[in-house]
Q: What sequence folds into this?
């Protein structure tokens, strides 16, 4: 008989493995290290925080899946050098934690990924963007890519929302004070 902790760890690892194997084309960079996930779920303080966070977030996902997703997001953030709190703020801003959200321009899922961006940048099909694990993987990788290119969070967030091409044309004043950056920071 598995303990609650072992059952939880097994669930997280199986979820991550199934996403990785079924949707391998979304992973063009190294996969999350097993040690990272083991550390996250074995530390009772951290594990308790994911439980608490999942209970505080009003989401279209059930609490158990949301908790596993938060652990997964945390590990991805660690892997790609993206701030975990910032990703949660982007999700809150973009979809209000509704994994089935669709914007007026066709952006989809938790992180409101445009199908064209998902396909051109990460070879991820439109049909996969409602899968919360795929959606956050693409979103976090895209934030990491943008941050590596722009180098500061305001420009990264502006590029995430407005597109990287047009962001290069904006003044620093606009980048630091635009509505999207303010909304994300408000959700931090």
A:
């Amino acid at each position: 008989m598995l303990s609650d902790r072992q059952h939880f760890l097994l669930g997280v690892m199986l979820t991550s493995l199934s996403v990785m194997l079924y949707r391998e084309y979304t992973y063009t960079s190294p996969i999350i290290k097993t040690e990272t996930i083991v550390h996250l779920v074995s530390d009772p303080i951290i594990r308790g925080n994911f439980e608490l966070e999942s209970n505080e977030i009003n989401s279209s996902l059930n609490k158990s899946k949301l908790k596993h997703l938060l652990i997964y997001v945390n590990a991805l953030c660690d892997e790609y050098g993206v701030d975990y709190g910032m990703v949660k703020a982007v999700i809150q801003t973009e979809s209000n934690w509704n994994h089935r959200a669709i914007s007026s321009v066709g952006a989809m899922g938790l992180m409101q990924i445009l199908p064209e961006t998902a396909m051109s940048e990460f070879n991820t099909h439109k049909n996969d963007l409602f899968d919360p694990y795929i959606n956050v993987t693409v979103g976090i990788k895209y934030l990491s890519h943008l941050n590596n290119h722009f180098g500061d969070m305001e420009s990264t967030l502006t590029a995430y929302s407005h597109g990287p091409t047009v962001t290069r044309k904006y003044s620093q004043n606009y980048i630091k004070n635009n509505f999207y950056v303010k909304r994300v920071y408000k959700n931090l």
